[in-house]
Amino acid sequence: MKMTDEILGEMNVDGGDIEGEVEINGQKIYFGITVDEISGEKSAEELISEFKKFIADFDKWDKEIRAFAAKALTDNANDWLQDSLEDDEEFIEITEEKFAERMVLNSMGFDENGFDVYYDDDDMFWGHCIWVYGTLENGIKDASIAG
């Protein structure tokens, strides 16, 4: 089934799964909203409304997410990069600022428990993605690599 929203555009709805693409900073980003139809406390309409608030303020969130992920993962990225060097290659350390700059927004998920935002890693982790989790009420909770 299709659903259309003035901000989110056309979305595919399959049971409790709502999927679509939204433009953020000139880039089309895939999103998925999951509604727990059995034990969930929030309706699809409530989650869509919360997701729209999240993306309306995404410039602020993006800065916070990048800073959090950089603080949590830069040392790990440097370890991975150092491990991938050939014997004759010089190691150039990545700073937290460079780490944050290299993150490329890929996709996001949203449900009543919070948000998941995925960034491409620019090969800092050999092609894995950077995953960040948080809630609108309590902010960012965790950052890790995935994939």
Walk me through this protein's architecture.
The protein has three helices and eight strands, in the order ββββαααββββ. Strands 1-2-3-4-5-6-7-8 form an eight-stranded mixed beta sheet, covered by helices on one side. The model has no long low-confidence stretch (mean pLDDT 94). β7 (129-135) and β8 (139-146) form a beta hairpin. It is of the alpha+beta class and 147 residues long. α2 crosses α3. The relative contact order is 0.15. It has one domain (2-146).
Task: Output mean pLDDT.
Answer: 94
Portion in helices: 25-40%
Cα-atom radius of gyration: 17 Å
Tell me the strand percentage band. 35-45%
> Tally the helices: what do you get?
3
Anisotropy-based shape: elongated
Q: Class by helix and strand content?
A: alpha+beta
Largest beta sheet, briefly? 8 strands, mixed
Number of strands: 8
Question: Could you state the order of secondary-structure elements as H and E?
Answer: EEEEHHHEEEE
End-to-end Cα distance = 29 Å
* Largest sheet: spatial strand order: 1-2-3-4-5-6-7-8
